[in-house]
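Page 42, continued from yesterday. The earlier attempt failed because a stray header line got pasted into the input along with the sequence. Redoing it now with the clean sequence only.
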Amino acid sequence: MVKLLRIDDRLLHGQVAFAWTKSLGVDAIVVANDQVVNDSLIKMSIKMAAPPDVKLAVRSIEDTVKLIENPKVQNMSLFVVVKTPEDALRLAKLTDQVQHINVGGIRKEPGREMLTRAVFVNDDDIQIFNELVSMGREVEIRQVPTESKKNIIELLKS
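This time it went through. Structure tokens are written below.
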């Protein structure tokens, strides 16, 4: 069961690996991104950032869907981390296992406007977030679990 899907362009780092994993009480972290799965250097750094007491998998989007829908994994609680809103939308379209989406970090780049101090969005991101919400997914912004949830649609309106 996927407890949370997090969008974070830094993927797995201390804040994600320890604070969120502990707060969620998950058995495993799944990093899902088609480019990262083929980059041995990034995979090595992800493995170094993972807590030693939690299983870790780095998979493509398609393989992540196969993994989370595998009956052998249904009794495990999973924390899925993706790099982009596009990754989150692809997963949400391919499986109903993704219901709660946390937006934790999207860097400032040309063409992106600040939504919070850690989340910068462009028109494509806004369209994706609206689509995820229209699919019935809960989409919130929080960097760490101790912060209060901010509903992304409410932030987009302001």
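Notes: The two ends are 34 Å apart (CA to CA).
Reminder to self: strip header lines before submitting.
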